[in-house]
Amino acid sequence: MTQATSRPIVISAQGLTKRFGDITAVDGISFEVPAGESFGLLGPNGAGKSTTMRMIGGVSQRTSGSLSIMGLDPELQGPEVRAHLGVVPQQDNLDEELRVRDNLIVYGRYFGLPLSYLRPKADELLEFAQLVDKAKSRVDDLSGGMKRRLTIARSLINDPKLLLLDEPTTGLDPQARHILWDRLFRLKERGVTLVLTTHHMDEAEQLCDRLIVVDKGRIMAEGSPAALIRAHSTREVLELRFGTEHNHAAARTLQGIGERCEELPDRVLIYADDAEAALDAVAGRGLVPLTSLVRRSSLEDVFLRLTGRSLIE
């Protein structure tokens, strides 16, 4: 799958495959990412997202297919690729023996960058990450959100053209997630190409211009969040809970209301363009749910439609 664009292509993957013995983690996926785009890989744990990121970063060799990063093969020209790459791993791997500011400077030395560049750059990144007052603090004294912002700041020490973020907000509270989203949006405004993996639909909707929905190593759909929702779901969703022992029977009675009905272990979903009208129809059939919720469709609904299961299981 490709996307027509006049911007230069930063990542081009064609038939990208990765096998571990008899297990196929990435199964012949194809996609392109133009410069300046925020591109997402959305899917549940084990879908092949992190494996794809490792191949892009040049730390895992592909089994077959082609992969080009800024016109270079990451397997053959790894150092050249990594010189223009920033990586935010799924788990923070900060040096806890160093102070906050020193984490940035020491990391920059790995790129061979001079101290005359690193000292002012570290101060600039601490301001960007809202960590100026923590510059001399120990890493252990930082909150989870602060550590995540420091990890992102560290990944920017070499002014990368491409930033890879693997599950950037996993484990953070809502406030810390929104602060991090703001920092990433600012990077996008500067023209940095972002590639992120996530299983959080709201994160994908907030951050991604375009994304691929991945399951079991394969691409199920590709497009902008809004386009995917329009193509694979209705405008609204009615969530109903009748109790664990009663959802199944209720789902059978609800068939025919709205465009379709989905039964999950803890609730029943009715997809309709007018969910309030669907709720009236439920009452008309003599059913009284324990709880009801009208909401707009999300990428979670897209994934459920494409795979028959939830993003987070």
From TrEMBL:
Q: Which InterPro entries match?
A: AAA+_ATPase, ABC_transporter-like_ATP-bd, ABC_transporter-like_CS, ABC_transporter_ATP-binding, P-loop_NTPase
Under the GO molecular function aspect, what terms does this record hold? ATP binding; ATP hydrolysis activity
Q: Name one GO cellular component term.
A: plasma membrane
Tell me the keywords, alphabetical order.
Antibiotic resistance, ATP-binding, Cell membrane, Membrane, Nucleotide-binding, Translocase, Transport
Q: Which residues form the ABC transporter domain?
A: 11-241
- What Gene Ontology biological process does one annotation of this record name? response to antibiotic
Where in the cell is the protein located? Answer: Cell membrane
In Pfam terms, one family for this protein is ABC_tran
Major subcellular location class: membrane
The topology of this chain with respect to the membrane is: Peripheral membrane protein
Give the family per the record. Belongs to the ABC transporter superfamily.
Query: What is the name listed in the Swiss-Prot or TrEMBL entry for this protein?
Result: Lipooligosaccharide transport system ATP-binding protein
